Amino acid sequence: MILRLQENESDLQLTAKEAVFRINRDIRFSKDKTPYKTHAGAGISKGGRKSPHPGYYLELGPKRIMVGGGIYFLDKEGLQKIRSEIAHATDEFAGLVENKDFKKRFGEVKGERNKVLPAKYKEVAQKHPLIANKHYYYMTTLKSRHITNTGLPDMLMEYYRIGYPLNSFFKKAIV
Question: Of 60, 71, 73, 94, which one's alpha carbon is 20 to 30 angstroms from that of 44?
């Protein structure tokens, strides 16, 4: 998937090791050797799985496939830049999150919200409550039976294509 995403995003220069999340905790001295995860997950973004850059998420497990993207690890400066971009380009942002294909595949943009918002964003928040978010991500769940489907990479790429415009908006904001 990294190679396929790199066809559209040349700045995604990372290895699988930089993208894949660990499945186990340190079990060397533990009596309980069961994994704490029963799925494999990867964060594909510039800088890898814990990057402050917008990217994509993929999770493959026995019960489900999760696919999504957005920006999660935002520091104070990055959050300020995203909010400023939303306030500056309210119509563009609304068009991205209200896009019918985006809503059909992902539903809505998710993320924990701040209880207190800086005064300069309060007026925008009335029209776009997402400006209060601390994180901006979108996610959907697919049936695990698709894991063995040879068309899975193409299916995932369709989801990534639909999320790409929103990720591009976030990239433009944090540059």
Answer: 94
For 143-167, how does the pLDDT look when each residue is reduced to its tens digit (9 = 90+)? 999 999 999 999 999 999 999 999 9
What single letter denotes the amino acid at residue 33?
A: K
Q: Give CA 110 to chain center in angstroms.
A: 10
| DSSP H or E segment with residue 106 | helix 100-106
Question: Rounded to an integer, what distance in angstroms lies between the CA atom of residue 149 and that of residue 162?
Answer: 21
Structure tokens at 39: 């799925």
- Domains for the chain: give ranges and CATH numbers: 2-174 (3.30.930)
| pTM more than 0.70 | yes
Nearest CA to 45 out of 22, 81, 71, 76 is that of: 71
**β-bridge mates for residue 85, sequence order:** none
Alpha-carbon distance of 77 to 173, in angstroms, equals 11
In one-letter notation, the amino acid at residue 21 is F
